[in-house]
């Protein structure tokens, strides 16, 4: 069997990713210092850029785990560069997730890396590859909420606090949605290696429609209410209140008119 050597350029961080990270840093600084004339614009840029960074890290985690599990073709496909344009179609990977954030404040799972599963041996490795992405969202959520559950918010400007709370909400929703055991989502990828060949063959045709089905179901008011009640309960346990996420979302949607933050 031929192997694909991983060149240094295959691992080099993409300038596109570095640019997005720079936007995250600058807009976060603007939200913190109040430098921007419109704080909502700073929050929008910070949350959107940080969300794209998390999408890149999510897919990178899949790729890196696949590489160490036996798929040495990952590097040549550009997945180790953190370039968001390499993770399948830009519309599915970037535009749609950002659009859903704008529309409803839901962390939509992004694109995907193409993994040559035939190169990988062992069911545990296949499950770990699928779990690596949403576990990155979990880690991102822990980092975003750390100032809240560590009571380290003294002196933190309200604008930045609310932006961080809203970003945490996106990471929690992304982790939960990704871990659902539905064909097409990472949660199904975790359990798929343990299913019989007959079940996998029967389920395979439904994989492209799994994500669509999830959001159709979420349009049902009772399901939507229960879903966000669960999200709020998790965030409250991490110290993030509904007040934080509400005002984070309000600031994010700056085009709807300037919102004066109570107490600011």
Automatic annotation (TrEMBL):
The chain crosses the membrane at residues 12-32, 90-115, 127-150, 162-182, 203-220. Its main location: membrane. Its cofactor is Zn(2+). Keywords: Cell membrane, Hydrolase, Membrane, Metal-binding, Metalloprotease, Protease, Transmembrane, Transmembrane helix, Zinc. One of its GO terms (biological process) is proteolysis. It is a multi-pass membrane protein. It comes from the Bacteria. It is found in: Cell membrane. GO terms for molecular function: peptidase activity. Belongs to the peptidase M50B family. PANTHER family: ZINC METALLOPROTEASE MJ0611-RELATED (PTHR35864), ZINC METALLOPROTEASE YWHC-RELATED (PTHR35864:SF1). This is Site-2 protease family protein.
